[in-house]
Structure formats: structure tokens, C-alpha cells
Amino acid sequence: MIARPSRREFMGLTAGAVAATVTPWFSRTVAAVAAADASNADLIIINANVYTVDSRLPKAGAFAVKNSRFIAVGTNDEIKGLAGKDTRTIDARQMTVVPGFTDCHNHAGGDVLLYEVLVGNPFEVEFVTIASIVDKLRAKAKQTPAGTWVSGYFFDDTKVKDKRELNVHDLDDVSREHPVVVQHRGGHTSYYNSKALAMAGITKETKNPPGGTYDRDEKGELTGRVTDTARAVFNKVGTRPTLTPAELERRSREGIAHISKQFVRYGLTSVHHQGGDLAAIQDVRMRGDLRHRVSYEMSGRVLDSMIASGIQTGFGDEWIKLGATSEHTLDGSFSERTMSMSQPYPGSKTGYKGNVTESQEELNAWIERVHRAGIQVNCHANGDVAIDMYLTSVERVQKLFPRADARPKITHCTAINDSLVKRIKALDAIPALFTTYAYYNSDKFVFYGEEFMTRAMAFRSLLDAGVQAAAGSDFSPGPFAPLMGIQGMVTRKGWDGKIWGANQKISVDDAIRVNTLHGAYASKEENNKGSITAGKLADFVMLSEDPHTIDPEKIKDIKIVRTVVGGKGSYEA
Ligand SMILES: [Zn+2]
To answer: Which terminus of the chain has a smaller tally of CB atoms within 10 A, N or C?
Structure first.
């Protein structure tokens, strides 16, 4: 049974909100369901420092949960009365409680974490040596037949102790018999050895294709770094390690179960997955190992079948729901410096303005097909050029085929200006900005400069304009820890102590709202989750410290003590 506030209680709630301006939070009335419903709660939390992210009752000391939903939020005295003989009571001892966090853009590569060679740290800032990368890949090459690809993952070009680019010579030291590739964690650039380049027929004379580059050094020799669309030729050459269908299935399931554990360890209770094995997600749920809620974002076969069979965004249930499309890519990367820009990259001798990876006509056709099918559109647009293209396309389709509450999602939406912000607001578009980058990737902002950074990852500008900006870690490109993200939003200070675009700082309250309620709004689930409100799903996180009062530069070190999804423990420290 779902407990929802009745009409009378809803009225009471409104009265409470009016009183809120003069009454301290702890003396407000319970915003709750009828007592008959609420008695004998499954779980009550008392003596807590609760930030509800509900403007009608922003702070509380206790709450009750029944049938996986919050049924009452208020003071200790009010909530204690809801305990019955079967109620579990947790004394929070003044610990801070916030709604469960939502990551609106995550590639959830659990199988890569479990089964592939990781040449960098997926979760934290850590520096590695090029020698360590070569060693790990050499060990892999020893177990791999010649001609078969040897691949490394989670490389980050600015987390290298050697302070230089990884190059073709390093990877030739891994092997000359195997094609070798190191994937940048950002997902838009890769590094190849000579064998791989030769197999793909790439020489220093090869021309760059539209939307990509074969990088060369000052002498014109290939460096091994290849960007965006130029990497497509490598998919057609060499042998890939073969797995049986049963092995593939097992990997997918174990990968989902593994990443789910990692998510709740960091306080995430909802994650928007960029594709992945939908059957595996359902299997893992059936066997009881899905610890977080999934908004599944689709492309390819799943998207085509949805359109063909009339399935729209919102199909599914509270654990696995079909959301927007996965990111339909329009340009390059922020962290790898290939995003589309209206001005050349600062310091570029060639006038490089990044990579646009689709034409306006192709984009219009894609948007029209998806939008008309009742599926929430979502494009990857980092640079101002790509964001403009996307908005143009959505404005066009809304004129031709208007659809209410479409909430087009903009994955990344990194570089904005005043006119783009106005158009985003007018469309009620949802930007899912990078979150952990402010802390994790501060070493890359020097390539853009301070003037640019004052309008990049522009949480302040977007919130001021009334836009429901949300959080999108983009894991694997960014670590997904929400507290690392919140620290970056609040301080704009990187791991290296450098501050970039301080004008875009937001408050702790705003940063929590971005990571909770706005995340729910992004998948059209704000009536069901995103705040600690009677009637919503009981997803919450208990923190060892209050991010409002701790030194802002230590927010990322706050311990997640307990993560609760639907009233049940998903993680306990
Ligand atoms: Zn992405």
C-alpha cells in the first residue's frame, strides 16, 4: 500500500509552510499521513539532523518509514508516537541525514572494473607512472595471442607522475606483436602502438577525418594519440578476445552487481545508466543484488524497439524505469580538450575549435524521430556550438510537434553563455553538468583559462535562472562520489589547490538539491523521490559529519555511514 498525504493533510502541510517563516523548524507540525496509517511504522529514525530538501519543511529531527516510503517527517516526539511493536528504531545520535543522491549520467562499467586492465584509479585522485602502465599491459600481453588486442582502461593524461603524454613508443614497449590501446577515461581519446596503427593503415600522411584527429608531433610523426571519430578504423582490425555467450552473460551480471555495491558505498541511491545490459540489470534485481534504482537510458536496439512498439519514457517501476535516451553525441570532450567551441582553444597554433560529430540535419532527424515517439531526448553537448545545435533542434521539433513536459536533457552542457541559459530555461531543458570535475580535473582547466571557466560547469548561473541543473558524473570519465562533487560545487577548488570559476560556487544546500531533487526531476520522478517527504520512496543517506558545518574542503572525506533504499539498508559502513 502506498501512503500518501490526504487532501486535509496536504492543506495542513501548506499551513505549515506559511508558519515556517516565523517558527523554528523543530516546533513545526508533522507533515504526515493519517495516524491510523502511520502507526506501527517499519522503521523510525530519531535524534537526527535531517536536511529534507523539501522547502515546506527543510529541517527535521526524525522520520518514519512504512512499506518502503516515508510516512511522516517531524520532531522526535511526533515520530516516536508512530512506533508499534514491530517497529525498528534507529537512534541517529545527531548524525546528518540527507535524501539519497542521484547521478544523472553514468556509464556504470562494472564489468570493466572487474575484468579489464585498469591503468588508473577509477574512484579517487591518484598519480601513476608510465612504467606502471607499460608493466600492467605487458603482463596482459604475455597471456594474449599475437594479433589480439591488449587494452588498458581508466588512463588519465594529467594523473601521470612522469608529467608527459603517453606515446606510441611507450606502447611499443608493451608489444610489437599485439595491437595495443590505452583508453583515456574520458572516452574520446585513445593511444595506440605502432602495430595497431599499421594494422589500421594509418601513416603520417593519413588525413584527419571530419570530427577526429591522428595527432602528430612537431616533426609530423604520429604520436599514437587519436581523437573522437578518427578511432573508428581501429574497430575493424585485429582480433578481440572471444568470450562465450555464457561468459558474457556472467560478466554483465557480476559487473552490475559490483557497480551497484560501489554506488551505495558512496551514497548513490539512483543512477541514470547509459545503456548497458538491460536483461542483466533485471536478473541482478531478481536475485536481490540490485542495491540502487536505475533510470535506464537507451540507444540502438532498445531505442528502436521502444519506438517500434510504442514504449515511452517512464515505462517500468520504481527500481528499473526507462528514462531518457542515452547521450546522443554531438561533440567532443571537456577533459580531453576536443569539445566544440565558438572560439579557438586558447594557445592553439592551428586555430583548433574542437570536434563537432554530427550535422544539424542528422540531429534534427534523430530528435524528431525520438521526440515524436514520446521518449525524452538527451544529447551529449559540451561546447557552446554543440549546445546551440541541440537547442535549435529541440526548439524546431517543439514548434512542429509540441509535447508538454518534454524536459530535454543536456548531458554535460559544459560551456554556456547568457543566451544559451535563456533558451535552456525556456525549453525547461535539464543540464546534467559534470560534478566531480571541479575537484578531480582542476589540472585540465589551465588548457581553457579562467575567462572560460567562469562560464563552465555553470551551476550558479543555471540555478539563478531557475534551471533544474542536475548532477552527471559521467563515470568512467569522472569519479562518481557525490560528496566529491558537492565539495567541488561549493569550493570550485581542485585537488591541486587551484580555484577556477569561483563565480559559479553554490551553497551546500543548493549542491545537495542538485544531487537529489533535481536528479529526480531529470527523470520525471520528483513526485516519487529526491527529498525526505511523506509519501516519497524512503531513500536516504546517513553521514558522519554535516557538510554544512565541516570545513568545505573536507566534504569529500565525510563517511557514508548508512545508505538506505526503500527503507532497507543497502550499505552500512
Ligand atoms: Zn557520457
So the answer is: N
Asked if pLDDT for residue 208 goes beyond 90, the answer is yes
Distance, CA 407 to ligand 1 centroid (Å)? 18
Q: Which of 440, 397, 452, 542 lies closest to 122, judged by CA?
A: 440
Distance CA 64, CA 564 (A): 13
Q: Which residues fall within 8 angstroms of residue 250, CB to CB, at 6 or more apart? A: none
For 267-333, give the secondary structure using H, E and C.
CEEEEEEECCCHHHHHHHHHCCCCCCEEEEEECHHHHHHHHHHCCCCCCECCCEEEEEECCEECECC
| Residues by chain with Cβ below 5 Å of ion ligand 1 | 474
> What are the phi and psi torsion angles at 378 (to 5°)?
-150, 120
| Across 15-19, 404-408, 464-468, least confident range | 15-19
Q: What is d(CA 499, CA 493) in angstroms, rounded to the nearest whole number?
A: 4
Q: What are 240's three cell numbers?
A: 578481440
How far CA 267 is from CA of 258, 262, 390, 481, in Å, comes to 15, 9, 32, 8
Cα 324 to ligand 1 centre (Å): 13
Position 26 pLDDT exceeds 70: no
Q: In the chain, what percentage of residues exceed pLDDT 90?
A: 88
Q: What is the pLDDT of residue 347?
A: 83
Q: Higher confidence at residue 106 or residue 242?
A: 106
Q: Is the pLDDT of residue 228 over 80?
A: yes
Q: In a 3-state reduction of DSSP, which class is residue 344?
A: coil
> From the CA of 180, how far away is ligand 1's center (Å)?
24
* pLDDT score for 226: 97
User: Separation of 458 CA from ligand 1 center, angstroms?
Assistant: 18
Residue 42 pLDDT greater than 70, yes or no? yes
Within 10 Å of residue 348's Cβ, how many Cβ atoms?
14
Question: What pLDDT, in 10s, does the model give residues 418-459?
Answer: 999 999 999 999 999 999 999 999 999 999 999 999 999 999
Cα–Cα distance between 516 and 51 in angstroms, integer? 11
Ligand 1: distance of its center to the CA of 89 in Å? 40
pLDDT band at residue 38, thresholds of 50, 70 and 90?
low
Rounded CA separation 550/537 (Å): 28
Backbone angles phi, psi at 241, to 5 degrees: -55, 135
Kindly give the distance from the C-alpha atom of residue 203 to the centroid of ligand 1, in angstroms, as a whole number: 30
